[in-house]
Amino acid sequence: MRQAYAGLTIAQTKIAHSLSIAGGFSRFESRLRLRDNNIHPEETVLPIRELTSQLQDNTSRTVDNDAPSALRQELIDLVYQVHRTSVYKKLGEPIQGEYHPQFNEANLHKVITQSLGREASGQPYSGFRYAVGRDINKVDWPRVYDLICRLWDEIPFELRAAYETGINRILAGYSIAWDLGSDGRLHRVSPPAIQQQIEAAFRELSDPRFARALDSFQHAMNAYDDRPRRDVDVCKNIMDSLEAVAKEVCGMPAATLGNVLAELRKLQSLSSETISVLQKLYDMANNHFRHGMTTPFALQKAEVDFVLVSCLAGILLFVRLS
Questions:
Q1: Which domain holds residue 29?
Q2: pLDDT, tens digit, for every residue of 92-137?
Q3: Long-range contact list for 76-81, CB < 8 A, 24+ apart?
Q4: Nearby residues of 226 by Cβ (< 8 Å), 6 or more positions away
Q5: One domain for residues 165 and 205
Q6: With contact defined as beta carbons under 8 Å apart, do 197 and 313 qualify?
Q7: 201 and 164 part of one domain
Q8: Are 227 and 180 in contact (CB under 8 A)?
C-alpha cells in the first residue's frame, strides 16, 4: 500500500485509501494524477483536473458544438509528432528521422479510420497520413473528440504526457470547452472558482457515509463533461447528490429534501433566508427536471450552470454542518 501511494500528499493519500476501500477509482476519481517518479518526478502530485489557464483564459473556452477543420488536421499532425518525442529530452522536442519503437503507421491508420466509423483501406491512396487527414474531415464533430480519447490507449505510456499537453494546447487555441485529463478522458473546463467547488465537493464526499451522494455526484459530472453536455442528467444527478447529503447529515434516510428543509425550519437550525434559498432550488428541481416536473425540460445552458453551482454550494453547506 505504501508503494501504491508513494508521492502523494497526506490529504491525497487519505482520499486514495478511502476510495480504494470503496471499490477502486472511477472515471472522476481517476483524475488524481499518479506519474512514474523516474520519468516525470516534477509532475508526481498534480490537481484532480489540470487546467490550461496558463494558455488561455478559461472563461473563453465556450466552443462545445464544433470541431473546426483546422483543429482536426492539427490533431493528426500531433499524433505523428508525439511519436517523435523522447521522454529523455524536453517534452515536445522532436528526434529528427526517428519514431518511437512502438510506432506502426499502418495500425494507427486502421485505429483512426475504424474509430471514425469508416472502412480502412490496406493501401490508401497517397498514403496513410493523407487518408486519415481526409477521413477525419468527413465525420460529425463529436466523433473527433471521441477519437482523442480512443487514441490515448494507442500512445505509449511514456509519451502520454506529451500527448496530453499537445492536445490541450490545440483545444485551448480553438477555445474548445474541454481539456484532456491524465485519465485519457475529456473534462469540461470550468472557471477556477467553480473548479474549486467541484474539487472541494469531491473531497468532502469521499467519506464512505456519503457513498450514495458521491455516486450521484459522479454521474452529474460525467453528464457535464459529455459531448454534447447532457443537461437534464446534470441537473437531476447533482440535485440527487444534494438530497442524499442532506438526508445523511440530518439523520432522515427516508425523507426528501423538502422534508429535511421543513425539519430545519422547525428547529431553526439554519437562518430562514438560507432555508428559503434551498427551498426555491428544490421547487425549481421539482418543476423542471425531477420526477414531479410540471413542464418539459427547457432550462438554458446558463441556468444549468446555475443549478450545478447552487447544488455544489448546498452540498458543501450540509457536509460542513455535520
A1: 10-43
A2: 555 555 888 889 999 999 999 999 999 888 888 889 999 999 999 9
A3: 76/112, 76/129, 76/132, 76/133, 76/136, 78/163, 78/166, 78/167, 78/170, 79/108, 79/112, 79/151, 79/163, 80/129, 81/166
A4: none
A5: no
A6: yes
A7: no
A8: no
Q: How open is the CA angle 210-208-225, to the nearest 5 degrees?
A: 60
Same domain, yes or no: 236 and 176: no
- Where does residue 20 rank: exposed (0-12), middle (13-18), buried (19+ CB within 10 A)? middle
* Longest Cα–Cα distance in the chain: 76
Asked if residue 172 is part of any domain, the answer here is yes
Confidence of residue 16 (pLDDT cuts 50, 70, 90): very low
Residues 34 and 73 in one domain: no
Are 7 and 44 spatial neighbours (Cβ–Cβ below 8 Å)?
A: yes
The mean pLDDT value of the chain amounts to 83
Length reported for the chain = 322
Cell of 82: 508525439
Is 128 found in the same domain as 202?
A: no
- Written as nine digits, the cell of 39 is 520519468
Span 120-129, pLDDT tens digits: 888 888 899 9
Domain count for the chain: 3
253 pLDDT exceeds 90?
yes
Which of 155, 183, 211 delimits the end of a domain? 183
- What is the dihedral sign for C-alpha 278, 284, 290, 292? positive
Report d(CA 50, CA 46) in Å as an integer: 7
